[in-house]
Amino acid sequence: MPKRKVDILVISDLHLGTYGSRAKRLLHYLKTVEPKTLILNGDIMDFWLLDMKKWPKSHSIVLQHFFNEIARGIDVYYVTGNHDDYLRSFTGFKFNNFKLVDEIILNLDGKITWFTHGDKFDKSVSGAIRNMAIRAGKIFDQMIRFNKYVNQWQKFFGITPSNYTKNLKDKTKVVVKKQNDFELQNIEYADENGYDVVICGHTHNPGKWEYDSRNKDGEKIVYYNSGDWMDNCTALEYNNGEWDLIRFKPKDNSIKNFLKNLDIDKDEIL
User: Fold this and answer.
1) What pLDDT does 267 receive?
2) CA 42 to CA 185: how far, in whole Å?
3) For residue 251, what are the domain limits?
4) Domain-embedded: residue 268
5) Which residue, among 9, 178, 39, has the nearest Cα to 117 in the 3D structure?
6) Residue ranges of E strands in 22-175
7) Into how many domains does the chain fold?
8) H or E segment at 24?
9) Percent of all residues in the chain with a pLDDT value above 70, rounded to a whole number
10) Which of 27, 191, 221, 242 is 20 to 30 A away from residue 62, measured at CA?
């Protein structure tokens, strides 16, 4: 099957190393696209919750895919996020066409575009609160594991699977957003610095929003969120001057055949 050519591909919030990461769906999606530039927009590796004892083979294959893209000459940017903030000590590291950065600023068809994970102004994941956020993340990760176990029994008895961890996570993020309003601060920062477009992850809430610029009469600041590969399985693709938000939902048969070719344990949760 021929791959779709993409000028820029943005994915974020893979959270490799956790129970919630949908690594196998991501692998299936990555095999359908051929980007000229790949931007990993934060929280790719989840160092907050990392436990090598529970590291699945599929997560290693995802990393190998990225290494292969670098070897092929694809420009790959790794933008650090809050869950992989340990890497910020190495910001600026370059190896051939790979760059480890905290942010990227590109001129795309006349639009100054700012790529950032999105946690720059999020007080709930920094300072003294950071340790509380890590502990809460570990609890969520165990809840996800239990939720998957419950879903297996629900499928067995013909009951529609539930996702109470996602519902709880969404409610928590709404509360944090109201108290913190860090997304609006990202928009204001972009406006102050003359950026036209903001590309973020972090909130796991894929979508597109427009805001009136305070510094450019009649202009809009366009905000995109690439979502995540835990609950939404979304990515941003840039072609011919336009961004498209892709929500990947493979057919059951196609992903089962794909996983057979990868020789991945069929008992791992998709």
Assistant:
1) 43
2) 18
3) 4-262
4) no
5) 39
6) 33-41, 75-79, 94-95, 98-101, 103-108, 111-116
7) 1
8) helix 23-30
9) 72
10) 242
Put simply, whether the predicted model's pTM sits higher than 0.90 gets the answer no
Kindly report the CATH number assigned to the domain that includes residue 150.
Answer: 3.60.21.10
Q: Which two tokens stand for residue 220?
A: 């809009």
In this predicted structure, what is the pLDDT of residue 150? Answer: 43
- Other C-beta atoms lying within 10 Å of the C-beta of residue 86: 12
Residue 222 included in any domain = yes
pLDDT tens by residue, 204-263: 999 999 999 998 889 999 999 999 999 899 999 999 999 999 999 887 666 666 666 665
Whether 267 maps to a domain, the answer reads no
pLDDT 10s digits, 84-137: 999 999 999 999 999 999 999 999 999 999 999 999 998 877 665 656 665 665
CA distance 195 to 186: 11
| 107 in any annotated domain | yes
Q: Comparing C-alpha atoms, which of 78, 170, 172, 85 is closest to residue 120? A: 85
CA–CA dist 46, 142 (Å, integer): 14
**Does residue 200 carry a pLDDT above 50?**
yes
Query: Within 10 A of 137 (CB to CB), how many other CB atoms are there?
Result: 18
Q: Are 189 and 224 in contact (CB under 8 A)?
A: no
- d(C-alpha 15, C-alpha 140), whole Å: 13
Give the pLDDT mean for 183-195.
Answer: 95
Q: In the chain, what's the furthest Cα-to-Cα distance?
A: 59
Question: What is the DSSP-derived secondary structure letter of residue 44?
Answer: S
- The four Cα atoms 190, 203, 125, 24 give a dihedral, to 10 degrees, of -120
80 vs 61: CA distance, rounded Å = 20
